[in-house]
Design brief:
single chain, 6 helices
Length: about 160
């Protein structure tokens, strides 16, 4: 299978495409990300970083790359599914993600809430493709990376049966 042969490059290119897409949407099309969107980028940055380390230092043993991808994808799955849950109003988001203000009789407290309030509410879908939000697309991609990487790790680094001589 060609994907198994080139998984190291495939996962790195997928991560680069994901980050480039997010940055193009943000800086060229002026689609401001919410705080959850920014957290969903972290795994891709990490995967690209460890890819660069492996390539620059010409490391032959790539198991730490694949373990890093697995850890990063677990982090990514957590935030991706949390964000999808927030968009669908199934889960509540962190305080910096909500658009509402808390009731207060103190003017300075209200002013502080307004000044620190998130500009972009995590519940609002700012971009979608065929009715699927960017957070949902990201959840699918990071889950796919997790599954394929897990299979790759098991096939190449899982317990091997040794023959008795």
């Amino acid at each position: 299978m060609i994907l198994k042969k080139y998984w190291f490059w495939t996962v790195s290119i997928l991560s680069l495409i994901a980050i480039c897409s997010a940055l193009i949407a943000e800086f060229i099309f002026s689609l401001e990300p919410c705080s959850m969107c920014l957290k969903q980028r972290h795994p891709y940055y990490f995967i690209i970083l460890i890819f660069i380390i492996v390539v620059v230092f010409k490391l032959q043993q790539k198991i730490w790359f694949y373990v890093g991808v697995q850890i990063a994808s677990i982090y990514g799955i957590f935030y991706a599914f949390w964000h999808v849950g927030i968009e669908n109003k199934i889960l509540s988001g962190p305080e910096e993600c909500s658009g509402g203000l808390q009731v207060s009789n103190n003017v300075s407290s209200l002013k502080e809430q307004i000044m620190t309030k998130a500009v972009i509410n995590c519940e609002e879908v700012t971009w979608e493709f065929l009715g699927i939000s960017a957070a949902s697309i990201n959840a699918f991609i990071i889950l796919l990376i997790f599954i394929i990487n897990a299979v790759y790790l098991l096939n190449h680094y899982g317990s091997k049966k040794t023959k008795n001589i």
